[in-house]
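Predict both folds.
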Amino acid sequence: MSSSLKLSNVKNLNDQCSSLVSQVKSATSSDKINEYSTNIKKSSDEMVLQEKDRILKSISVETLASEKKGYNIKALSEAFSSLYNLREASVGAIAAVNGIGDKTAKMIDFDADIYAKRVQEEVKIRLSSDEQNIFSDRLVMDIYAFKESQGVLEELKALASETPVLEQKKLSLKPALSPFKWLFTSKAVKAQVSEAFDYLSDKVYGKYHSDIVDRIHLLESIKQVEPSVAWKDFEKNTVSYFSILEKINPGVLGSQDDKLGLPEEIIKRISEEQIATAQLKCTLRTYQEWGVKYILHQGKVLLGDEMGLGKTIQAIATMVTLRNQGASHFVVVCPASVMLNWVREVGKFSDLFVTEVHGGDRDDELTNWLYKGGVAVTTYETMGKLVLPDSMRISMLVVDEVHYIKNPDALRTKNVSKLIPSSDRVLFMTGTALENNVQEMVNIITMLQPQMALKIKPLAFMATAKLFKEKIAEVYYRRRREDVLTELPELEEISEWCKLLPEEKSVYRSTVMSSKKNFSLIRRVSWNTTDIENSSKAIRLLELVEEAKSEGRKVLIFSFFLDTISSVASIVQSHGGNVLPIINGSVAPNTRQEIIDNFEKAPAGSVLPAQVIAGGTGLNIQAASVVILCEPQLKPSTENQAISRAYRMGQSRKVLVYRLLCEKTVDEKIMDMLQKKQEIFDKFADESVAASNEIKDSELESLINEESKRLALEGENDATTTSSTEPTSVNP
C-alpha cells in the first residue's frame, strides 16, 4: 500500500465521503424541501386562528339570540364577556350559569362552536408592515426562507446529482480498507482503487465539499434571519410574498375564484393553456396568470380589470410567452400620455426589445422594429401614418385605454380596425367599466369579434343579467379589486412618466436657462406651460381622475405650489369634474374640516386639491383612495405625510399613489437623487443620526446646473444639425 493509500487515509476518506453524501441527500430530501412550504401553511393557518379569536372576542354572546332557541342570553352575557370566552369555557362552566342546565349547556357549546367555524371560514389574513406581531413575523420569515432558499436548493440538487458517482467510487475503495485483502489485490484493481482515491479526495477535500457545506450553512442562516430583514424584503417584494402564500395556502388571502365570472365550459378550455414566462422579470399573482391564459386561449379579447390589478403586466407576460413560443412582432397602441410608461414597463419587466414609434424618427424606428422584432409602442394618431408591409403579421396587437375608440366613425377607431386583420391576437385594455354604456361595449367588441357582437346586441337591454355576462365572457373579462385582492395591500405607488409636448419643452428650456436660481419656478415642470390644456401632466391627470370616477374612487391631489394646485382645480373643473375648495395654508381649521366633510359626502370622481404642506398634515381624508402628486417633493417625509392623509386607519380601499413626472427634466434628476439617497439612508440610518434622505438646497442647485448644461449642449447639437441640413447658397 502506497503512502497515500494507507489504511487510515482510506478509512478517513471513506467516512468523510459517507458523511458528505449523507449531508447533501438530507439537505435535498423531499421532507427537507417540503418543510419550507409546510412551515408557511402552518404559520398562515395559525394567523387565521388568531384572527378568528380576535373577531370572536369582539362579538357579544347576544349574537346567539339570533338562533332563537330560547337561551337565557342575559345570564350568559353577564357570565361571558364575548363569544370567545363562551367558546373557551367548559360545558360545566356554562351549565353553572343561573338558568342554564346541562342539556342546554351542551346545545350552547355546540352552537358556539358552529358559529366559530363559520367565522374561521370567512377569515382572510392580511399582511402589512404596519401590523407586525409574533404571528405575522413568523409567516413573513417563513415566506422569506422559502423564497430565498429556492435558488440555493437548486444548486444543492445539482451538486447532489453527483452522489451516485461518489457512491460508486466509494465502493472501489473497499479492497484498500483491509490490509490483508490489499496484499492479494491485483495491479488492475489497485489502479482502480488509486484512481477512486484521487477522485474522492478531490471531491471530499476540495471545492465540491466546500460548495455543499457553504450552501447548507446558507440555508440555515436563511432560516434564522431576523424579522426586520424579512419585513424589509416584504416591503420591496410584496407581490412575490402574496403570490407564494396564495399558491401554498389557497384562499387564505381571500377569494380563490381567480376565474371569476367565467362559465364552466370556458374555464375547462382555458385551464389547459400553458404559459412560458422565462425572462419575465416579475412575479405574477395567481389571478394574473389566469388572465394571461385567458388572453392566450381566447385570441381576441377585451381585458377590463380595474386600475391597479396589473393589466399592463398581464399584457407583457402574454407577449413574453408568445415570444418564447416563437412569435416575434408586437404592437402597443395607446394615448400619448401613457406611451412612455409602456416603453419603461416593457423594458423593466421583460427582456423584449422595445421601441417608441412616434415623432420625427418614427419611420426609422419602424424600420428598426421590423428588422429586430419586439414591441413597437405608438399612439392612436401616429398609427394612422405608419405603413406596414402587406405581408406583415403582427403576433399580438395591444390597444390600451380602448374607450378612446368607442366611436366607430372616429379616425383613431378606423386606424385600429385596419390593423386587426393582420394581427394573430388582439388585446384591448381598459380600466373603465364599459358595462355603464353597453352600446359602446358592443361597438368595441364588434372590432374584436363581430359574430360575438351580433349575439350580444339583442341582449344589451339586460346588461346586468347573468345570461348577458356569460355571453360576453368569451370576449370581455373584468375583475374588481375586491374580487381578487381581498388581502388589499394598502398602498401602491406608481410613477406616471410623461413626455413634454413641443410647447412645454420650449417653456421648460427657457425657464431653466433664464431662471437658474429660481428653483421653485423650474420645479413647476409642465404646469407652467402657456396653455394648461397642453400640459402633458394635466392630460394624464384628467385621465386618472376619469378612471378613478369609473371605479367609484375619490381623488386627493397635492402640489407644493399654490399656482399649480390652482391650475389643477381649474382644468379639472373645466372638464366637468367635481372639485372641492382648495386646502392651503390660509384656510382656517374649521373650514378645512368642513371641506373634508363635504368631500366625504361627494360623489365618486370628486377631487380635493391641496397644497402638500397645508393638506399633508393633521387631516384624515379616508374618503380618497387615489392620491396624485403633481411633482416630486424634495423631502420624502413631506410626501409620506401627504399620502398618510388617505393611507390610514379606517381606509377601506387600497390607496393608489400616482407621481406625475416628466422624462428628461429636473423631475427625472430629482427622482434619481432621491432613490440614491434613500438607498444610503436605508443602509446607514440605524448607525448614524446624520443620515438623511432629503435633497438640500445646495444639492438642488448643483442638479439644476447640470440640467442647464445638458440643455445648452442639446441646443448646440440642434443648431449644428440644422445648419448642416440647410442648402448651401451658390453665386450665379
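Second protein follows, with its predicted C-alpha cells after the sequence.
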Amino acid sequence: MLCDLEQKLTQDYKNAVNSALKVLGKDNLALIMHGVSFPADNGCDTGFGTYNSNAAKRLMDFANGIFTAIQLGPNGKTKSGDSSPYTGTVFSVNPLFLDLKELTTKQYDNLLSEKTFEKIVEANPASGTTRAAYSYALGAYETAFDEIWQNYKKNFFSKYKMPFAKFKKENALWLDNDALYEAFSIENGSDFWPSWSSELDKNVFKLNNAESKKRIKEVAKKHADVIEKYKFIQFLLALQAEKTKEYATKNNLKMIADRQVAFSDRDIWAYQALFLDGYSLGCPPDYFSEDGQAWGFPVVDPEKLFDKNGNLLEAGKLLKRLYLKMLKENPGGIRIDHTVGLIDPWVYESGKLPKAEEGAGRLYSSPAHPVLGKYAIARDEDTDKTLTPDKEAWVKSLTDEQVAKYGLMIEKIVIAAAREAGLGVEAIVAEDLGTLTYPVEAVMKKYALQGMKLVQFVVPEKESHPYRCKNITPNSWAMVGTHDNEPIRMWAEKTIAAGEAEPFVENLMQDLYNNGAFDNPCEFREKMLGDPQFLAFTKLVEIFASKARNIQLFFTDFFGINEVYNKPGTSGDENWSLRLQSDFEKLYSEKLATGDALNLPLALSFAIRARGHEFAEANQDILTTLGKFI
C-alpha cells in the first residue's frame, strides 16, 4: 500500500532515497525540464512556462532532497514561426521566460499592470490544459513588453538606471547585435533575414565597410526605442534568472544549461563572417534517413577558430564567451548537444544532399576531399579505404597529437570556460547519442568527458551494446529517454503490442533479475512480456542498477505522463509544448497510486537487489528503510 504524498516526502523519505542512491554509486539525479514545461500557479497561466515563476519554485521545493539538478533546455529567443528551443539564439534569452506575474508586484515597481496580466491569462487559449500556446504567447507578451517599457520610460525608476547601464556595458558584445536585429527586422518587414530584399541589410556585418557602418548607424538611430526596449527586457530576464539561481542553490539544486549545436537566424546574420561559406552541418545517411539529414545549420570556419599555435581567434573567442556566460548563469554545468558537431562534424554543400557522393564529408576527417582536405586532421593513411567516408569507422587510427587537434574546441573553449567559471570537466555533459566516430571516442577518452547512455535505444541482440545495463560505464549519464523520445511507458506499450519485447526482456532478465536476489524471477519475465507498466518500470530500474554515476529523468517519465514533448522532424504549436500541470503534487500522488509515476523507493530497492544477492544482503538496512515508503 502506497503512503500518501505528504508522508512520502518527509525528510526520512529523502534520507532513505539518498542513502540508496549513495550505495548505488550515484553522484547526481537530474530532472530534465525545459523552460516551457514548467508549471504555472492557478490564475497565472500566460500560455508559456518559465523556470522563473513561483510555480517553478514550488517544483524546486518538491525536488529538493530527491534530485540534485535540473537539466534545462536551450533558453534562447526562438523564431516567430518555430518554437524549437534548438534553433534559438545562443546569447539572448527567450523573452517568453520572463515571469510577467512578478512584474505586477511592488518588488518590480508594478512595471506591468494587474489588468494587463489578467487579460493575458484570461485570453490564453491553452488555459486548463497541459500545453503551451506559443503563437498566442508571442503576441500577448509583446503587448506586455510594450507596457513594461513605457512604464519604465515614464517613471524612469532610479533603482534600475545604474544596473541597466552596467548590464548593457557588460553584455554589449552580443546584446548590441541581437537588439539591432529587431530594428532591421522592422525595416524589412520580417524577422527572417534571408527573405529581406536589401542585400546590404542582409550582409551589413559581413561587409564591414563604410556603407554598411553608415547603414547600421542609420537604422540604430531610427529605431533607438525598439533597441532599448529589447535590451531592457533582456535585463529583466537576467534579474529574474539570478534570483532563480539563488533559489535553486538554496534548495540544493544545480541548474544545467543546454548548448544546442545550431545557431539562430539572428546569430547567423550577426556573425556571418565567422562561418564557412557554402557548407552546412547535418548527418550522413543512416538507418533512419537514406538521404541523410540536411539541418542547414552553419559551420564555424576552422580558420577563424584557432591560429597555428592553437590560440583563439575571433570565432574561438566568441564561443568561449558564450560557454562562459552559460556556465556562470548555470553553475550546475552544461550539456553539449550533438558533441560530434564540435569534434568531427559532418558537413555538406548548401543546396545538395548530405551524402558523400554529392560532396559531403567530415570537416576534419576528409584528407582527400578537394575542398575540405585543407582542414583535415586525419591523414589519408588514417582512413579505412574499404569504407565510405560516412561510416563511423572511416577514421581508424590517430596519433596523440592528432587527437589533441580534434579536441581543441573541447579543451580551449569548453573546458577552459568551465575552469574560468570555477567548474571542472565533470560539469560537462556530452551528448554522444547516435554517431560516435573514432575521433569523437578518442577526444572523449582523453578529456574524460561524460557521455550519455540511453537504454531505450539498446540493440538487445548485441551482447556488448553500450546502452545495455551491464555495459554502461561509470563515467556517463544513464537515462531511459531525452526530450526527443517517447515516454518509456509509451515505448513499452508499442514494443509489447508489436511483439518485439522478448529480446529486451531477455536482456533485463540476465542483467537484473536472474541473480538469486529475487524470489520467483520467472514471474517477472512473464509480466514484462505482457504488462507495459512493469516493463517501463524495469527499464527505469535498469538505469539505477547500472554503474553510471549520474542519472537523468525526463519529467514525463518521473511524473507518469504518457504524452510526447517533441516529435523530431515535425513543427507547429503542438510540438515543444507539453507542460507540467499546476497541481503537480496531486498529479504525482495520483500517478503513484496507479503505478504510473516513478515509485523511487521501489525502483531503488529493485536496483539494489539487481546488483546481486551479496550486495542486497550488505545493504539490508537500506532495503528495510526503503520498504517503509513503498
